[in-house]
Amino acid sequence: MIYSMTGYAVASADSQRGALTLELRSVNSRFLDLQFRVAEELRAAEPLLREMMGARIARGKVDCRLYYGNSISQAQQLNVQSIEHLRSLAAEAAKAFPGLGPLRVADVLRWPGVLGEPAADEARTRAVLESLGRRALDELCAARGREGSRLAAILLKRTAQMRQRLAQVAPLLPEAVALHRARLGERLREVLDSGVEERIRAEIALFAAKSDIDEELTRLAAHLDEVERVLSLGGAVGKRLDFLAQELNREANTLASKAAGLKIADCALELKLLIEQIREQVQNIE
Q1: Kindly report the CA angle at 7 between 6 and 9, in degrees rounded to 5?
Q2: Could you say which residues of the chain have pLDDT below 50?
Q3: Residue-level pLDDT at 73
Q4: Residue 259 phi, psi (nearest 5)
Q5: Domain that holds residue 215
Q6: Considering the entire predicted model, what is its pTM?
Q7: Tell me, what's the pLDDT at 137?
């Protein structure tokens, strides 16, 4: 399967300290670049998440955000000992200052040590993080896969269009060679009048080089075969496809420089435009 480097996923799970949320955003990058924004109390989870992502993702810049949701207050619990201590202090204060009003609930909850979090169970927390990471990565890879399928379809469409252009060039070659031969004949007649034999040989060599584009057409067809083969393999093929796009562009440039006629030059230009579209899409593939 072909994967894009662009995707988004979010997953949540209940934990001892509240709702835990993992958010993943993925964009293009030459290599695998993992960026983490993790709550301080969850900093120990970064190595685990880094290992899980490295096993599933080959390329792309992935921003990972791990945090507790709004329900973290539900995980807090009252410290009975702190409340008893505060109650005794309030009773002593009431004796010393009879005119004082009773403590409000808000005052009690703000007192240091009254609200506390349960001791973290490391094994349970790791299990929650592993499950959360798998679900988020499954969703991210699915999104990247859907986008990758669309990109692969676009590339196959462009390769089919390029094959059509190559098929149009071959019949044009005899006419272009005849036209170039006629022009060469006029030049040779001019040269023969002056008797410069070296110029005659140079013009003949130039004609041979200009008229021979079979090699470029063969290489272009071979590169298109390789693009289709790589797409059928799937996996992390972005770098390979980028290399093939560069080779296609090089052959198209050579074809354009050797074009012996206007129609062949137009076909070469259309090929270069299609190749550029391929290169743009390849930059998004893992």
Answers
A1: 160
A2: 71-75
A3: 45
A4: -55, 120
A5: 147-282
A6: 0.71
A7: 96
Render the chain in DSSP notation, one character per residue. Answer: -B-BS-EEEEEEEEETTEEEEEEEEEE--SSEEEEEEE-GGGGGGHHHHHHHHHHH--SEEEEEEEEE-GGGGGG-EE-HHHHHHHHHHHHHHHHH-TTPPPPPHHHHHHSTTTEE-PPP-HHHHHHHHHHHHHHHHHHHHHHHHHHHHHHHHHHHHHHHHHHHHHHHHHHHHHHHHHHHHHHHHHHHHHHHHHT-HHHHHHHHHHHHHHH--HHHHHHHHHHHHHHHHHHHH-BS-HHHHHHHHHHHHHHHHHHHHH--SHHHHHHHHHHHHHHHHHHHHHTTB-
The two structure tokens encoding residue 147: 């986008």
Residue 183: what pLDDT? Answer: 67
Answer yes or no: is 2 within a domain.
no
Domain identity same for 82 and 64: no
Structural domains counted in the chain = 3
